[in-house]
Design goal:
about 375 residues; about 65% helix; 3-stranded antiparallel beta sheet; globular
Length: about 375
């Protein structure tokens, strides 16, 4: 197994890492602005910087490894992720209404972040082994089973946002795997049935309140509808150029709760305006475009599905986070990848990028980055 860390920078996809660097810079700027409103000693920034350093090391090491070796560990990694989701129910700490955190030495870690990688790797392995066959009902049920186990464990925490991300990632990956129209209809029917059962027997009251508030924020503007209302005010007040970094009224006067995590997009929109949001989206577009391009040029189906899986995770997270901020989706506490505060989220996002870089480094020399189309 080849291991040459410098190769990750010498032969990797430069555009991918530039886009990631821009997103991380946006995140640090937003976190710095939030710290100003708290008058703290940059505690969030310090923890995020530590996570960034560890994440960059992990990204470099994984990129230097031959991604084919991951095939042998995908099943074991998935089992470890499931075990951690079980353990956190008994040994974890409850934060923000969810028993989904391990806290060690002042640092909090969510096993769901690890499960995102583990499930994606497991699905990449499964779909790559069946790439030459027509996508059948067995494939739909088997791949869905890999998702159902962690989703069930997450609902016990409860963590509706994490469960939604895993289901969304699976849904995007099965689209690339070749799901048929009849299977899509069956899947939509199953989702509707699960939603009804979840509403009646699984969802906590605060989760129901979030969904009802999403439908009509005016139902409870001072409680469950407060966050979404303040986020929309922040986004609308940003204008074209924004109020300036550290000068946003909603974030600096602390009207916007969880501004460094769940509503970091609203902070960026208020303080950096339409221009800042445009640059943010451009960085995400470049990041996702390179992932799809690398998947097209990958030398084998497993490498292609690793890139598609990473693409799926990122695009679902961005869609859910931004959708919640602009009141197009219920607020489920989903972070904006590479941007929101959160050590475990940033670390695992860089692990995802390391996997894509590992595939990019091992492209055929004649094909490397010559194909700039989707």
């Amino acid at each position: 197994m080849a291991f040459a860390p410098l190769t990750a920078f010498r032969n990797g996809d430069v555009l991918l890492m530039i886009a990631a660097a821009v997103l991380i810079a946006f995140g640090f700027a937003a976190i710095f602005s939030v710290e100003l409103s708290r008058g703290s000693e940059n505690v969030f920034l310090q923890k995020q910087a530590i996570a960034l350093g560890i994440g960059l090391v992990a990204c470099t090491v994984i990129a230097a490894m031959n991604y084919h070796a991951i095939r042998h560990y995908a099943r074991g990694f998935y089992i470890v992720g499931a075990v951690l989701l079980v353990l956190v129910l008994f040994l974890g700490r409850t934060l923000n209404g969810s028993t989904g955190w391990f806290v060690l030495g002042g640092f909090a870690f969510q096993p769901v972040e690890l499960m995102k990688v583990a499930m994606m790797m497991m699905l990449a392995l499964y779909f790559s082994e069946r790439a030459k066959r027509r996508f059948g009902w067995r494939d739909l049920l088997m791949s869905g089973g890999f998702v159902a186990i962690p989703v069930g464990l997450l609902m016990l925490q409860p963590d509706l946002g994490g469960a939604a991300l895993l289901v969304g990632t699976w849904a995007v990956m099965v689209l690339f795997a070749g799901i048929r129209p009849s299977q899509v209809l069956a899947l939509l029917g199953s989702v509707a049935l699960v939603a009804v059962i979840g509403w009646m027997f699984v969802f906590q009251q605060y989760q129901k309140d979030r969904i009802m508030t999403f439908i009509d924020p005016s139902l409870d503007p001072l409680d469950t509808g407060y966050n979404v209302t303040q986020a929309k005010i922040a986004i609308g007040s940003g204008g074209f150029w924004g109020r300036g970094l550290g000068d946003g009224s909603q974030s600096q006067l602390r009207f916007l709760p969880e501004s460094q995590t769940d509503f970091v997009f609203a902070v960026i929109a208020e303080e950096l305006g339409f221009v800042g949001v445009l640059l943010l989206f451009l960085a995400f577009i470049v990041l996702l475009w390179r992932m799809l391009t690398i998947s097209r040029m990958a030398r084998d189906t497993f490498g292609a599905y690793l890139c598609i899986g990473t693409f799926s995770v990122i695009i679902v997270e961005v869609t859910v986070h931004v959708g919640a901020n602009v009141s197009l989706m219920p607020a489920t506490g989903v972070a904006l990848p590479l941007v929101s505060y959160g050590g475990s989220a940033l670390l695992l996002s860089l692990v995802f990028l390391g996997l894509v870089q590992s595939v990019a480094i091992r492209l055929r020399p004649g094909d490397r980055f010559n194909d700039l189309s989707l």
